[in-house]
Design brief:
single chain, 239 residues, alpha/beta, globular
Amino acid sequence: MIEFQNVNFAFEKDKKVLKDLNFKIEKGESVGLIGANGAGKSTLMKLMVGLLSGEGRITIDGTEISRKKLYEIRGKIGFVLQNSDDQMFMPTVLEDMMFAPLNYGLSREDAESKVDEVLARLNISEYKDKYNHKISGGEKRMAAIATILAMEPEIILMDEPTSTLDPYNRRIIINTIKELKQTKLIASHDLDMILDTCDRVILLSKGEIVADGPAREVLSNKEILEANRMELPLSLSKE
């Protein structure tokens, strides 16, 4: 479903952020993307939705990402951005959640029904009519995730989905991710969440893939994690 072929990206000439990336993600896979700050995780995701443009070839369902194909590609992908303020741009949570479903052809009645369903699923129905500028960072994070779930995309990208969340909402998001059938790519420093939700892990370091394998195998490798400025997940460090 997703394929990177010899993908490179640099913000400045001769200072590559991503270096010759090659990997595939099959339909229905749940893949964790880990690495220290500056490893290139967010950049990789932004390339997938055309927010950045690099060298090489990225395909979604066999369709190469290009300016002409962006509308088609973005209709398949829901992207939870690292900064919720960059994602929530309408006055209220309801309007934000309805924007994509309405834009892709749902009736207003069906779109609002979908919104109600997602809010109830995340146990945040009281957010529906709240103004985005009046809710906390954690509340906005939950609302941003709800916005993407209301789209029902084929592919879900999440950049630090549990950041700013309290333990209760973090657990709701983990359980929700585990139930989702879509293809998922999740970037996070929350390695316990990655272990809980992902079958496979890709480890980036300085823009290169240094490990790619079963989640538990990669996340239990203390040597490779520490060599790349990370630590074992808490749940594994106690074993």
